[in-house]
Protein backbone atom coordinates (compact mmCIF):
# COMPACT_ATOMS: atom_id res chain seq x y z
CA UNK A 1 0.00 0.00 0.00
CA UNK A 2 1.43 3.34 -1.04
CA UNK A 3 1.17 6.03 1.63
CA UNK A 4 2.45 9.42 0.54
CA UNK A 5 2.12 12.39 2.87
CA UNK A 6 0.75 15.63 1.46
CA UNK A 7 3.29 18.12 0.21
CA UNK A 8 2.97 21.63 1.58
CA UNK A 9 2.86 24.19 -1.26
CA UNK A 10 5.28 26.58 0.46
CA UNK A 11 8.01 23.92 0.36
CA UNK A 12 7.59 22.96 -3.29
CA UNK A 13 11.26 23.70 -4.00
CA UNK A 14 12.72 22.16 -0.81
CA UNK A 15 14.56 18.87 -0.75
CA UNK A 16 12.42 15.69 -0.66
CA UNK A 17 12.69 13.44 2.42
CA UNK A 18 11.05 10.01 2.41
CA UNK A 19 9.97 8.91 5.91
CA UNK A 20 9.64 5.14 6.30
CA UNK A 21 8.22 3.69 9.51
CA UNK A 22 5.49 1.15 10.25
CA UNK A 23 4.35 3.27 13.22
CA UNK A 24 1.88 5.81 11.84
CA UNK A 25 2.36 8.19 14.78
CA UNK A 26 6.13 8.30 14.22
CA UNK A 27 5.65 8.85 10.47
CA UNK A 28 3.17 11.67 11.05
CA UNK A 29 5.28 13.46 13.67
CA UNK A 30 8.53 13.22 11.69
CA UNK A 31 6.77 14.28 8.49
CA UNK A 32 5.11 17.28 10.16
CA UNK A 33 8.38 18.52 11.72
CA UNK A 34 10.30 18.10 8.46
CA UNK A 35 7.62 20.00 6.53
CA UNK A 36 7.76 22.82 9.09
CA UNK A 37 11.54 22.92 8.55
CA UNK A 38 11.06 23.44 4.80
CA UNK A 39 11.34 19.91 3.41
CA UNK A 40 8.96 18.16 1.03
CA UNK A 41 8.01 14.74 2.36
CA UNK A 42 6.68 11.39 1.31
CA UNK A 43 5.94 8.41 3.51
CA UNK A 44 5.91 4.64 3.39
CA UNK A 45 4.77 2.13 6.02
CA UNK A 46 6.93 -0.80 4.89
CA UNK A 47 10.17 -1.68 3.15
CA UNK A 48 8.70 -2.85 -0.16
CA UNK A 49 6.70 0.34 -0.62
CA UNK A 50 9.77 2.34 0.39
CA UNK A 51 11.90 0.76 -2.34
CA UNK A 52 9.21 1.47 -4.93
CA UNK A 53 8.92 5.12 -3.84
CA UNK A 54 12.69 5.56 -3.70
CA UNK A 55 12.87 4.43 -7.32
CA UNK A 56 9.96 6.63 -8.41
CA UNK A 57 10.49 9.78 -6.33
CA UNK A 58 14.30 9.80 -6.01
CA UNK A 59 14.16 11.51 -2.60
CA UNK A 60 17.11 13.59 -1.48
CA UNK A 61 17.25 11.71 1.86
CA UNK A 62 15.50 8.76 3.53
CA UNK A 63 14.60 8.47 7.24
CA UNK A 64 14.28 4.71 7.64
CA UNK A 65 13.06 2.56 10.53
CA UNK A 66 14.94 -0.72 10.94
CA UNK A 67 12.24 -2.99 12.40
CA UNK A 68 9.29 -3.25 10.02
CA UNK A 69 7.13 -6.16 8.89
CA UNK A 70 8.18 -7.78 5.65
CA UNK A 71 11.36 -6.16 4.38
CA UNK A 72 13.29 -4.48 7.19
CA UNK A 73 15.12 -1.17 6.96
CA UNK A 74 18.56 -2.79 6.79
CA UNK A 75 17.52 -4.67 3.63
CA UNK A 76 16.03 -1.51 2.10
CA UNK A 77 19.21 0.46 2.82
CA UNK A 78 21.43 -2.30 1.42
CA UNK A 79 19.36 -2.57 -1.77
CA UNK A 80 19.34 1.22 -2.18
CA UNK A 81 23.10 1.39 -1.96
CA UNK A 82 23.57 -1.60 -4.28
CA UNK A 83 21.69 0.26 -7.04
CA UNK A 84 23.81 2.94 -8.75
CA UNK A 85 20.67 5.04 -9.36
CA UNK A 86 19.93 5.36 -5.62
CA UNK A 87 23.31 4.66 -4.01
CA UNK A 88 24.01 8.34 -3.35
CA UNK A 89 20.83 8.98 -1.36
CA UNK A 90 21.72 9.49 2.33
CA UNK A 91 19.88 7.41 4.94
CA UNK A 92 19.22 8.10 8.61
CA UNK A 93 18.27 4.85 10.38
CA UNK A 94 15.87 4.79 13.32
CA UNK A 95 15.66 1.85 15.71
CA UNK A 96 14.13 0.86 19.00
CA UNK A 97 17.48 -0.61 20.00
CA UNK A 98 20.94 0.86 20.03
CA UNK A 99 23.23 -2.07 20.65
CA UNK A 100 26.69 -1.88 19.15
CA UNK A 101 25.74 -4.66 16.72
CA UNK A 102 22.61 -2.82 15.54
CA UNK A 103 24.54 0.38 14.97
CA UNK A 104 27.28 -1.49 13.10
CA UNK A 105 24.72 -3.27 10.88
CA UNK A 106 23.10 0.04 10.01
CA UNK A 107 26.39 1.55 8.91
CA UNK A 108 27.47 -1.61 7.05
CA UNK A 109 24.18 -1.54 5.11
CA UNK A 110 25.02 2.01 3.97
CA UNK A 111 23.36 4.37 6.46
CA UNK A 112 24.95 7.76 7.06
CA UNK A 113 23.47 8.16 10.54
CA UNK A 114 21.67 6.19 13.27
CA UNK A 115 19.25 7.33 15.97
CA UNK A 116 17.68 5.25 18.73
CA UNK A 117 13.97 5.55 19.49
CA UNK A 118 12.36 7.38 21.09
CA UNK A 119 13.83 9.90 18.70
CA UNK A 120 14.37 13.51 19.71
CA UNK A 121 12.57 15.09 16.75
CA UNK A 122 14.51 18.36 16.98
CA UNK A 123 17.77 16.42 16.82
CA UNK A 124 16.49 14.42 13.84
CA UNK A 125 15.66 17.63 11.95
CA UNK A 126 19.15 18.98 12.78
CA UNK A 127 20.75 15.81 11.43
CA UNK A 128 18.65 15.98 8.26
CA UNK A 129 19.73 19.58 7.73
CA UNK A 130 23.34 18.63 8.38
CA UNK A 131 23.14 15.95 5.67
CA UNK A 132 20.84 17.95 3.44
CA UNK A 133 20.51 21.72 3.97
CA UNK A 134 17.16 23.12 2.76
CA UNK A 135 17.32 25.17 -0.42
CA UNK A 136 16.13 28.78 -0.29
Question: Helix and strand layout, with pairings?
Answer:
Elements: E1 16-20, H1 24-36, E2 40-44, H2 47-57, E3 61-65, H3 73-82, E4 91-95, H4 100-109, E5 113-116, H5 121-131
Parallel strand pairs: 1-2, 1-3, 3-4, 4-5
Principal-axes geometry comes out as globular
Distance between the termini: 33 Å
Mean pLDDT: 89
Low-confidence stretches: 1-11
Helix/strand order: EHEHEHEHEH
Oligomer kind: single chain
Main sheet: which strands, in order across? 2-1-3-4-5
Radius of gyration over all CA atoms, rounded: 13 Å
Alpha-beta content class: alpha/beta
List the total number of helices: 5
Most strands sheet: 5 strands, parallel
The helix content, as a percent range, equals: 40-55%
Tell me the β content: 15-25%
Number of DSSP-assigned strands: 5
